Amino acid sequence: MSCMQTISDYGLRSIGIGERLLPTTDFTLCQQFTLIGSGMIWNIYFGVLALAAGFFLATAVALGKASNSLWVRKPSEWFIFLFRGSPLFIQFFFAYFLFLSLRSEIEFFQPFTAAWLGATIVLFLNTSAYAGEIFYGALQSVPKGDTEAADAYGFSGFTKFRKITWPTMMRLAWPAYTNEAIFLFHATTLVFFSGFPAWRQQGDALYYASYFADKTFNPFVPYPILAGYFILLTLLVITLFGLVNRRLNRHLPQHSRSKIRYRPKLMR
Amino acid sequence: MFEYCTNPDTLSGLAWFSCYVTTGKHLSFFTSFGTVLVLLAITAPVALAFGFGGASMARSNLSPLRWLGKIYIAIVRGVPDIAFFMFFVIALDQGFEYLRHQVYCPDWDQPIRQGNDFIVCTAAKLPLSTSPQWVHEIYGFFLAVLTFAIVFGAFAANVIFGAMNAVPKAQIETAAAYGMTSRQTFWRIIVPQMWVYALPGLSNLWMVLIKATPLLFLLGVEDIVYWARELGGTKHERFTDYPHGDWRMWYFLVLLVFYLAFTRVSEVVLNRWMKRLSRGQATAGGEALRRAAT
User: Fold this and answer.
1) Is a pLDDT exceeding 60 seen at residue A122?
2) Which domain holds residue B138?
């Protein structure tokens, strides 16, 4: 079987298009590259969705934590504490079994036990908490002069936030937020090892990598392939977030722009 | 456990519950919390040692050693950690068996990798197929500790490397002016002073390490996650004295609370340490303490 044939058979296997059976004997390098790459679709799906939705909740949580009202501040602090203080792995398990027991009561929760929805919700809440803490830190370091100048120019309320506070907050938070994004993509590999079943063997990159490692009893091929894919993904994220960073800092002189440094927070 | 537990069918309410949570399996569940603590207690110092070694290597004068140290730090950071956990457990196991195979069976002529199998002679198997169950468990735990130490050692190396570079240059120049060799400077000037710079990073690492312990489950150790799944599942009357529905959600809620409490306590203790270490130091934290005192 030629490599092109393998790619057309297994290239979209992780979303259920192509050959139904996974290869069981005579594993070729091409098969491993194709299937693990196909699994990356799920990693990107989880990461992009959770990040895009989490951005808004994170902003809300950061503002909530900085709020003067006790009724807003306390829930925000607890939300951040709950998701940052416990392991993501346990959060996945808990959410899966929670959805499972809800499903037996209410029909509506049927799709929540599937990874595509349930895991996305957990990742969304998790990244909101981590990014919320980052945004909160940035909000606290917005220079006092900026807001005072805004007051002097007659800005107030939402306009002041939208035009003055928020852009500065983003600018300060962006390097840390980039690392959070990289880190979130790494965290997506946990999904199929934490209760959520891989329906019809449609899993993510690590799911297929461990499938090959189990079958061939040789970890030295699939895991380095997975590592290669993730390094590429990391570089892509750094590039994209770097473009945004450039736009956020475009009014500053070249040398005083903050550079994005790759410093992931390891694990959650 | 209790005397009134002999006939669970007659019990109800609190009495039933007190008997339920003291069954033999539940006692194993509680011991597995100990397993997690033991893992942390062993891994933290070993990882710190790995980190210290890695950082010292990364600033060595010999270029091959330096490259090795830098590669060790860089490689673990770019890839999802869980991939490393799954990789190292098999790789280390096969590595050990391969080495023993070379020692114990020198005249074995077949290749070790035959198609999809990894075959070593019986004497080289780890643990030996004749050994009792507890040896297998200890070996599995040992592999897990080593894997954790390698991965977290790289993170710690990164932190310590940064801390060593953060020691004020004037200190090192003064040491040179006093005629200390680079070895003396390292042990007498850099190492004692770097800890205050390393502590914020290391305490972050400790929190991360706590939150990584549930991954023991993936390494095949019977830890809290294993028992929570096992005990929480639906139990039918035919197989157990204490039938119940699917309680896994509640078991994982208990784990969630356990971890939240653990990270919270660690946070408070580490903050107290940081305050003590910052006293009299020429850092922002030390300066803040000095101002608050006057």
Assistant:
1) yes
2) 31-225
Q: Do A97 and B248 touch (CB under 8 A)?
A: yes
Facing residue for B82 by CB, picked from A90, A94, A190: A190
pLDDT band at B191 (very low <50, low <70, confident <90, very high): confident
- Whether chain A has a CB inside 8 Å of the CB on B33: the answer is no
**Closest approach of B49 to chain A, Cα-based (Å):** 19
| Residues of chain A neighbouring B202 (CB-CB closer than 8 A) | none
Domain boundaries, chain A: 42-197+204-256
Domain count, chain B: 1
Residue B101 lies in a domain: yes
d(CA B169, CA B59): 15
CATH code for position B220: 1.10.3720.10
pLDDT digits (tens, 9 = 90+) for B159-171: 888 888 888 888 8
Q: Is the Cβ pair A266, B208 closer than 8 Å? A: yes
Which of A24, A78, A194, A267 would you mutate first to test chain B, the one with the most B CBs within 10 A? A267
Any domain includes B234: no
CB of B270 within 8 A of CB of B239? no
Nearest to B218, CA basis, from B151, B263, B265, B153: B151
Partners of A187 on chain B (C-beta within 8 Å) are 80
Specify whether the CB–CB gap between B234 and B244 falls below 8 A.
yes
pTM over 0.90: no
In a domain, B291, yes or no: no
Indicate whether A266 pLDDT > 60: no
Domain A42-197+204-256 in CATH 1.10.3720.10? The answer is yes
Tens of pLDDT, residue by residue over A187-240, are 898 888 887 888 778 888 888 888 888 888 788 888 888 888 988 888 898 889
A127: pLDDT confidence band, cut at 50, 70 and 90? very high
Helix axes A70-85, A29-65, angle to 10 degrees: 150
Quick one: what percent of chain A has pLDDT higher than 70? 94
Tell me whether A85 touches chain B (CB under 8 Å): yes
Of B258, B232, B213, the residue nearest A96 (C-alpha): B232
| Residue B183 to chain A, least CA–CA distance (Å) | 30
Q: Tell me if chain A has a CB within 8 Å of the CB of B255.
A: yes
Contact B86 A218 (CB under 8 A): no
Residues with Cβ within 8 Å of B82's Cβ and at least 6 positions away in sequence, in order, are A186, A189, A190, A193, A206, B215, B218
Residue type, A133: E
Tokens of A223: 């895991």
Domain presence at residue B92 = yes
